[in-house]
Amino acid sequence: MRTKTLLTVVVALLLAVVPAWAQEPIRIGVPLSLTGPLAVNGEDNRKGILLYLDEIGGKLAGRPVEIKVEDTEAKADVALTKVRKLVELDRVHAVVGIIGSHEAYAVRDYVHQKGVPLVITTAGANDVTLAKKSPYIFRVGNDNSQEPLVLGHYVATKLGYKKAIAIASNFAAGREETESFVKTFTQAGGQVLQQVFPPLGTPDFAPYISQLKADQVDVTWAWFAGTEAARIVKQLREYGINKPIVSQGALTANVVLPLMGDAGLGIITAKHYSEILETPENRRFFAAFMKKYNDRPDAWSEQAYVGIKAVGEAVKAVGGKVEDRERFLEALRKTRFEGPAGLVWFDPNQHRIMDVYIRRMEKTDGKYVNRVIDKIPNVGQNWTP
Predict the structure, then answer these.
(1) CB 220 within 8 A of CB 243
(2) What's the Cα-to-Cα distance from 148 to each of 84, 155, 359, rounded to whole Å?
(3) What are residue 359's phi and psi, to 5 degrees?
């Protein structure tokens, strides 16, 4: 009886010494598009986040970490509803995720008003870290300008194409990606004869492909994400449009390459990551990802992995006290670490500066890969040649 009483006293004393906040788990909300047209990108995000959770043993600064995943269905209104739920009901300390640009725009004002830290992993909505920037919003993925700005100039000056048509998914990402490509392509002397925008979720692209003036150009810009990327490439080829295709990296995500097949061979894309990058950190990341999932990581796995790691590094910098929001945000702004695609750090707009790789879809040992053929270093949102 005396032993039990003594043990109770000791436990009580220990709990009294440990602050109340340190006894609580760190709760991180993860809103991702896990169903709908962007589900493949959402699933890549989920895998990257869970890999990091494994690596830290489910704890940061001695506190357990709870990951609360919500499916946004790639819908703006659902994304806002799910983020509200994470903040108000689940009382998360930070939010990591968001796949679609339209979702990012939908949640921006709410996140800003509530002052909750948000690390956007994939959504490229340009203004979220420009005209609509917020001290609470960070982004570790590319925005919708970085990679196509580089590619537009590269296509005109290095590849020598001068006339293009553009077809892209009609939502914020497709519009902004295309606008950025057109900007530098035309500045470098190129001409875009036509732009066509099928709605997101279009089941058959034939009515839109039939409008294209493919015989008048020497290159096609095509921007689609998820499984739509494979369908648009295959249909372009089926309808006899065999001009070279260029795009931002979403078009040739690893998960859609087998669906695209030989129709995609030779596609040139710009992306901040390829799983075959020969860096020590990427080799380690690739091996760990393959061991856990028996699958190759892709850019969206990398974005989510470094996004959650950025939060983790900031948590460690404040000794686990995420409740001190201002200190935590300042630590997040100062975060710097080596990721699979190079150094991860934020510019004054809290947006990641990254190297952009020019890649060509090839088939090696029976597998489709994005082979790196060139590199443009330190690309920001307002990149110029």
Answers:
(1) yes
(2) 32, 10, 13
(3) -125, 150
Which pair of tokens denotes residue 254?
Answer: 């690893």
- Sequence-distant (6+) residues with CB within 8 A of 344 are 140, 306, 309, 310, 335, 336, 337, 338, 352
Check if the beta carbon of residue 156 is closer than 8 Å to that of residue 188: yes
Q: pLDDT band for position 159 (50/70/90)?
A: very high
The torsion region of residue 73 among left (phi > 0), alpha (psi -120 to 50) and beta comes to left
Q: CA angle at residue 154 from 363 to 41, to 5 degrees?
A: 55
Give this prediction's pTM: 0.87
Q: How far apart are CA 9 and CA 7, in angstroms?
A: 5
Report the mean per-residue pLDDT for the chain: 94
CA-wise closest residue to 172 among 120, 207, 219, 211: 120
Q: Are strands 245-248 and 219-223 parallel, antiparallel or unpaired?
A: parallel
The Cα 291–Cα 312 span in angstroms is: 22
pLDDT digits (tens, 9 = 90+) for 282-310: 999 999 999 999 999 999 999 999 999 99
SS3 of residue 88 by DSSP: helix
The number of beta carbons lying within 10 Å of the beta carbon of residue 3 is: 7
